[in-house]
Design a protein that fits this description.
CATH topology of one domain: 434 Repressor (Amino-terminal Domain)
Number of strands: 0
Structural class: mainly alpha
Radius of gyration: 12 Å
CATH class of one domain: Mainly Alpha
Order of helices and strands: HHHHH
Strand content: under 5%
Number of helices: 5
Largest sheet: none
CATH architecture of one domain: Orthogonal Bundle
Amino acid sequence: MRVRKQTLGNRNIVGSRVEEIRKRKGIKQKELLAQLQVRGVDMNASGLSKLEGQIRYVTDIELLALADILEVSLDYLVGRIDEEDK
């Protein structure tokens, strides 16, 4: 597993949760990118890495796709609730 070279940013609150859930579910970044593309979201590896590192902003379309793929609510991704299953 690679170690993040850059410090965490402050451009989104979604990234850390996306990374946490992705890793817990055993989904590789490459697999997540493929699933995003199927849903019409064109993102490259660098973009996903920056999103997870909270260095890059997240669009509403990306947010919806990520919630669907990771099977969590939008409220969970944006930090409004702490439990995934609500």
